[in-house]
Design a protein that fits this description.
Blueprint lengths: L10 H31 L5 H28 L8 H7 L11 H28 L3 H25 L1
Length: 157
Amino acid sequence: MSTKNFIGMDSNLIRPVVDSLSDLLANHQVYYTNLRGLHWDIQGDKFFELHELYEDYYDGEAAAIDEVAERIVMLGGHPENRFSEYLKRAAIKEICGVSDWEAGLAHVISSLNTLLEGYRSLHKTAKEANDSGTAALAAKHIGSIETNLWKLNAYMK
């Protein structure tokens, strides 16, 4: 990582924050691609509602990806853009051909739990580095993910 960053943070303190953001970027990218596949492959009586939900979710993921990548740049890092590297780094794994609504939502819930864990870890790491901006970014995503998990788990009952 570069010793220079654009917002005056101590690069030695901020290195773990950039590493955590990079993990999140990889997970978001794989999750985004999986959501596109779920959107295309959904079949059955839940088609209309889940086709639309998956589209809303991947639109939100595109915004989150950009936000995380830009934060990496602000902190003096370089966001990865190679999917081959995302697959090596991400805890979320690729899926393909999932047309069953329950299997699809189970994957979404699992992915959101992975992202939630990542953002909680990022929040702690950012606070330890006195990085209020990244801590705020993490807190915003934590709240959003918790809301989505609550709704999806209620839907699955």
